[in-house]
Every structure is written in C-alpha cells, then in structure tokens.
Amino acid sequence: MDLVPALQEPLKKVLGPATAKVMAEHLGLHTVGDLLHHYPRRYEERGQLTHLADLPMDEHVTVVAQVADARLHTFASAKAPRGKGQRLEVTITDGSGRLQLVFFGNGVHKPHKELLPGTRAMFAGKVTVFNRRLQLAHPAYELLRGDSEETVETWAGALIPIYPATAKLESWKIGKAVQTVLPSAQEALDPLPSALREGRGLLPLPEALLKIHRPHTKADIADARARLKWDEAFVLQVALARRRHAETQLPAVPRVPRPDGILKAFDERLPFTLTEGQRKVSGEIFADLATAHPMHRLLQGEVGSGKTLVALRAMLAVVDAGGQAAMLAPTEVLAQQHHRSVTEMMGELAEGGMLGGAEHGTKVILLTGSMGTAARRQALLDLATGEAGIVIGTHALIEDKVQFHDLGLVVVDEQHRFGVEQRDALRGKAHSQGERRSPHLLVMTATPIPRTVAMTVFGDLETSVLDQLPAGRSPIASHVVPAADKPHFLARAWERVREEVASGHQAYVVCPRIGDEEDDPKKSGKKKPPEDEAEKRPPLAVLDVADQLGRGPLKGLKVEVLHGRMHPDDKDAVMRRFAAGETDVLVATTVIEVGVNVPNATAMVIMDADRFGVSQLHQLRGRVGRGSAPGLCLLVTEMPEASPARQRLAAVASTLDGFELSRIDLEQRREGDVLGQAQSGARSSLRVLAVIEDEEVIAEARQEAAAVVAADPELQQLPGLRTALDALLDEEKEQYLEKG
C-alpha cells in the first residue's frame, strides 16, 4: 500500500477528529498541507501588546495583556434569587488601554483562581460594549507562565503568531496544531524551479514555512512572506501561461476583411469619426483576427466608451471574410438591446437578402430562449445555411440544436457571467470546410479591472482598453444625499427629478430589492454585520418605493417599475415605453445596470446606495448622461457620516474614472474577494499575495511563468511545480481560473 505523502495526510489522523472537524467546517482546512498554508495574520511581540486602545467592535480578537485587578461580585437574579449569582470582573491592561473581562455563574471559579493581578495571558473573545465600556464576555485565555516546559515550547521565540481564528477555535489552539504538523514542512515539495529561486535569492519552501509559523525575528517573517508570495503568484501565472500556450496550439481560420466589403460600407455610413482609442483597439483586434491562431482578447471600456461599435466592426470584418459572428449577452433584455442597437447602427446593411437591403448586407438575427417556435426555426435555418452573418443571443446560442455554417468570431458581453465550459461549447460549433477550428474570441467588460487583477483573473486573455469617451457624451455630476442626517436633501432630490422631467428628460430610481419576495428575511440565515441602525431595516424595495413616489413626491408623473422577476415581454414593453419617452420615471432594480441605452434619461436616484458595491454604482451611473444633456446621479443613504459605507459613496461621487474607482474598491474590500465575481464565496487562493501592493511580483512572475512554459509546456522537468499546479487546479480553483 502507498504511503500518503506527509502533506496530504488528513488532519483527523494527526489532530484527532474533534479539532479536525472544526478546522474543516470553519476554516476549510483538511490536510496537513492546508494547515501549513494557514498563515498567521500578524505576530505579537512579548514586550509589546496589541493596543487595547484600538480594538475593533464585534470582531474576534486575541490580545496579550496583564491582569490589573480581579473582583468577584454576588448578585440576585432569576436563576439565583438569594443573591447567590456570581460575576467575576477582571480588568486587563497593556499600557495603551484597559479592557474589562466578565465571567458568570459556575464559570467564575477557574479564572478567579488563575487570573491574579500581575498574571500575563492571551485572551480571545468577541469585543462588545456594555455600559458604554468595551468588554470581552467569557473570553478563552491561555496563561503565559514562561516556566513550564510545554508553554515555553509552544511560545518559543519572541514572536507569538496570531492566526485567523474563529469563535470555535482560538488562535493559540491553531498555533498548537501547527506546532504538531510543523515537522512535515521538511517534506514540502518546492514548486519553484531552483534556478529561479536562487536567481532571486528566495528561501526554499520548507524553510519559508518554518519561518512564517515560528519566526525568531521580523526579518524571518519578511523573508518567508516574500518567498510564499512568489509561490502563489508563480503557480497561478504558470496555470494561466499553460492556458495561453494551449490556445496558441489550436488552429483557427485567419479572417481578413475584403477591401470593399460590408465593413467599408458600414464605416462610410457612420455619422461620426472613430476616436483615437477605437481605431487603436480595432487595429489590435484586426491583427489578431488575421492570424491562424484563435484571438483571445479582453476589451475593457467604460460604460459608453463605444465597445459595442468596436465589437461590431470586428464582427463585420469576419462576415467580410466569409465567416459568421455570434454575440452572447448575459440576459434576454440585453440581447434584445444589443440586437436593436446593432441593427440601428447598420441600417439597410442588416437586411442582406431582403428587398431594400444593401448589396453588401447580411442578416442580423436574434436568438433567445423565449422566442416562438416559428421564429426560432427560421433563425436556426439562417445560421445553418450561412444566410445570417451575425447572430445575437443569450445562452440559448450554446444549445445542441444550434448549428453554424462557419462560426469565425464569438463576442461575449460581461465575461464574469460566462464560464469557460460555455466558451468550449461554442468552440465545438466552429467547423470550417469540415475541420474543427476554434473561433476567435472577444470578451467585453464595462467593469474596469486594474492591470494586476486582469493579469491574475483574466491572465489567459490579452487586454485592450478603451479609455476615452466618444465626443458628445456629457459629464455626470454625482452627489451623496444623507437622508438620515439631512432629510431636506432627500426632498430636494425629488424636486430635482421633477425639474429634469419638466425640461423634457427622464429619470431612473434604483432600489436594491423587488419587494414581492415571499421569503422571510429571518429565514435566509445570512446575518449582516450591523454597521449601524440603517442595516436593521430591510433594503428599500422597488414596488414600495414606486408606490410611495407615485402618491407623494412624484405625484402626477408617469412612474413605471422594472425588475428581473417580470415576464420578458412585460420587461420589454416597459423598456420600450421608457425608451420612447412615454414614461417619466423608471423605478428599477439593477436589471438596468448593463446595456440599457436611453439618451434622454438624465437623472438617476440610487436608494440605499450603501448596499451596492463601488463598481456596481459606477455601472449604474453610466446609464445617465448618454445624450447631449449633462447627467445627474444622486446616491441616497442613511449611513452616518463616519461609516466606511459613506466613505465609499464619497469616493464614487468624487471621480468618474472607473479605473481609479476599481482601485479604491479593491483597497476597501479584503484581498479575499478581489477576484469578486470570479469566485463567489470560494476561499481565495491568494493568502499572502495582495493584488494591488504586489504588482511587481505578479508582473515578474508572469514573465518567468511564460518562459518556463515556453521551454517545457508539460513541466516534465519540474515535478514540484506540477504537484502545486494540480493542487491549485484541484480545489474550486479550477472554476475560479475558468471564469475568465
């Protein structure tokens, strides 16, 4: 029988089932290797204690402090009516501040004996406020005697590691468990090629693991972190480099537009000239399309920077070259919207083969799940015969029944809702003269992604950025409306909406919730941290808000609602009326976040704006100011001025630069969800790598990874790297890389 490698040994064998169960359930740690990679969050020095002065509220903390005094009180209560109730109050201090600990009932005896004035210990618990003073109720504690053999061993070294812990498992218990498995670190396989490690002066992996868990000096910690950062960045970049390498091995049909075809005819009928940025990005795309390998490009552009136009020109180039192009949208509303705008931009060029169509024209068809059978049958026929050069649709495009005549280009809108399985399914539909060939791929996103995140999350795509707005787009003024502090600001916001409508414009009101949910908020079980009072009430709902506005501040205006649970036909009808200017105010959920284009809408009021993320607010705001009149965006919130939520809103109001905002967004969110939509809830594979701070490491790792993969695509010479890669791709991380 095969011996399990030391690092794959399950924790329940090493630590016993009870501890292992808590580690698996609460920290996601299953093997010795997982535990070794559960790094300390910070380190306490013996002489220096956590500042009790800056304890965070409602968080689990571990502090090292000295007992100043301990008093036992008796009191009467329902359980102990004759004054027999006991409460032990212990005050601890660390020089920066004092903190009260409280123990009750039978729990007072042990601490009363052990926590004598002058005793030093580590205390762990949740910080709460009682009588306006901070306290820890029933904290777990560990005395620091420094004399008995075991304690000296456990706290060896001057630096005490403090681990990310949970209520069920205190930091020092994790520390003891690590102590148990630490000898196995010697057997850790090193993923870094030795030439790279020595060239950059990085520690070997076993030594790095030892130093991160049991450092003797601060230099130990710095060296260990530098090494472990490289591991993470490098293994991730190798995974991406291998994806890129595999893609370049695939054959694709080069698509070069005819000099006097539909693209030229389209360009000639454009009422404006392309911006410098649009020309440059189109050039990059056309160069990719002309090669015999599939293009893989991410097109980033602010809302309204003209991405759709750039994508459409790429699609027309492919049609010119005899191929077909498919554009995939995440929702039916969006697919219909794209279809409408593409046919409008193309005019008679979109009517190929029809009377009155242009001679260079082609058919542009829509394919969605809710189409009628006859229309669907005709659409499928047009695709199979090649009659239709361009098809726009939802995931319905990927179904088995859909066959293309010669699929040359796939454009995907909003990549994070679209995984690689779907990309592969479409790829399987690209046949050219009977051979399997991969279509070219263009992914569009309006979410500005900082360069390093793009390198980390979409590392298998080349990136093009459209960063100037087309001429004729108006600036958007944004303001925070603090409804709780200054109610008259909210009244003024509704007046502003009436003023916009009076001058012939329209407005959106966005709410976080629909309002017809049957589910009881108590049952959903997800507790929100009470940032403060405003969190206690449920988020404002479209149906309630529309009703109140119609009867109150916006009485007399035409107010309609739009949300995701409406029937697609109803949604479409509402959108059409709004686009036609028949509705004054549209009260909606974030269904309008992507792709709704109504140039006459100039104002947007976002209710409970603190419930939305930075990039989402930026996306929503991009829906106004699309015409020649300036846009106005009002962010309504009940959060107090000092709260992080308010700072976030102030940041959004202060800049229209999406890349700047995406940086702010990342700095405010924890590193774990940098990869935001790319891995919802999954444990981030980044443990010590900070995507923003470690820009250089990521960029260098990307170069090194590309070189390693070019020299040895199968990594035959590097067993350690292969193992690390398998581990990375094993977990849910496979999906996380695949979300590209």
Structure description:
This protein is α/β, with parallel strands linked by helices and 740 residues long. It has a seven-stranded parallel β-sheet with strand order 11-12-10-13-16-9-17, sandwiched between helices. Strand 14 and strand 15 (435-436) form a beta hairpin. Helix 8 crosses helix 9 and helix 9 packs across helix 24 (719-730). The longest helix has 32 residues, at 218-249. The protein starts with 10 loop residues before the first helix and ends with a helix. 43% of the residues are buried.
Task: Report the biggest beta sheet as strand number plus sense, adding barrel if it closes.
Answer: 7 strands, parallel
Principal-axes shape call: globular
Q: Hey, roughly how much beta strand do the residues contain?
A: 15-25%
End-to-end CA span? 40 Å
Which strands sit side by side, in order, in the main sheet? 11-12-10-13-16-9-17
Residue runs with pLDDT of under 50 for 5 or more positions = 148-157, 518-535, 670-685, 732-740
Give the mean pLDDT.
78
Provide a count of the helices.
Answer: 25
Class per helix and strand makeup: alpha/beta
* DSSP summary, beta strand count: 23
- Determine Rg (CA atoms, Å): 30 Å
Helix content: 25-40%
